[in-house]
Structure formats: structure tokens, C-alpha cells
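Figure 6 in text form: structure in, sequence out.
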């Protein structure tokens, strides 16, 4: 399994990955479907199998800004892991999407019961969140930063 910046399953040890996959169910979304909305309850997450999804964030007085595009193997959703369990970004299917869906409460319970799995998931989620925050920062600077301002000291 290939590990990318946004990949959860490929980064887990095989035994942990198998335990997590026992909780998965197949779902699909048509192109244009809103999968999650910023500020709404985050009670599940997905691993994309086929298709692509854009992550976006609200910008006051403007249309939502596309932050990143996810595809095969990528994790969609990390807000389920931290209270108050509300989405930090929105997500929309750019094309038809097939994904594995996980119930967040069940995964949190599994992580609590299995500290090795819990630690592996938490560490990988931290890496994914770091990547997403950097991508969002870069994209917003590209969209709204002053032109020609150069790098910050």
C-alpha cells in the first residue's frame, strides 16, 4: 500500500489496519455532492477509494476557498477525533467517489481499547493535520496574500 501525505491506512501497521478495516463500510457520492460542511457535526470519516474530493473553507464575503484535492487512498476528515467534533473544512465530490466510511465513535472506542492502534492512529492523524494546515495556509496566501510581499522574515 502506497503512503501519501494524506494516507491513513497505508501508514498503519498491518494488524492495526486490519482491526480498523473491520469497522469500515462502502459508500459512494455522486459528483457535486457535499460530503461535509464546515462547522457541522463530525461523526464519521472516509478513506477515498476512487474519485476526487475538494476540501474548502469559508472565507467571509467570498465563495468557499478550495484548499486541497484528495484522491485514492487519502483520508477525508480528521475533525471526528477532537471535541467538539465539528468539521474544520467542508468537502465536495469533484467526481463520483467510492469510499470506506468509518463511524467516528466506534473508531474512538477501538483506539481507547487498543493503545497500540490508538497511538498509531493519533500519530498519523497529527501528520495529516499538519499537512492539511500547511496546504490551507499556502492556498490562502496564494489567493488572498499581498502580491510581491516576498517571504516573511
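Output sequence:
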Amino acid at each position: 500500500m502506497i503512503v501519501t501525505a494524506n494516507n491513513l491506512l497505508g501508514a498503519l501497521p498491518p494488524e492495526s489496519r486490519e482491526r480498523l478495516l473491520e469497522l469500515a463500510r462502502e459508500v459512494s457520492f455522486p459528483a457535486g455532492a457535499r460530503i461535509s460542511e464546515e462547522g457541522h457535526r463530525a461523526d464519521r470519516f472516509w478513506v477515498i477509494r476512487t474519485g476526487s474530493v475538494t476540501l474548502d473553507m469559508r472565507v467571509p464575503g467570498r465563495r468557499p476557498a478550495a484548499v486541497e484535492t484528495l484522491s485514492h487512498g487519502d483520508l477525508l476528515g480528521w475533525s471526528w477525533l477532537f471535541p467538539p467534533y465539528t468539521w474544520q473544512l467542508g468537502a465536495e465530490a469533484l467526481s463520483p467517489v467510492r469510499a470506506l466510511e468509518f463511524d467516528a465513535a466506534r473508531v474512538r472506542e477501538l483506539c481507547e481499547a487498543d493503545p497500540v492502534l490508538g497511538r498509531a492512529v493519533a500519530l498519523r492523524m497529527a501528520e495529516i493535520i499538519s499537512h492539511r494546515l500547511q496546504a490551507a495556509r499556502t492556498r490562502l496566501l496564494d489567493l488572498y496574500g499581498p502580491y510581491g510581499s516576498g517571504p516573511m522574515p
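Caption detail: The mean pLDDT is 86.
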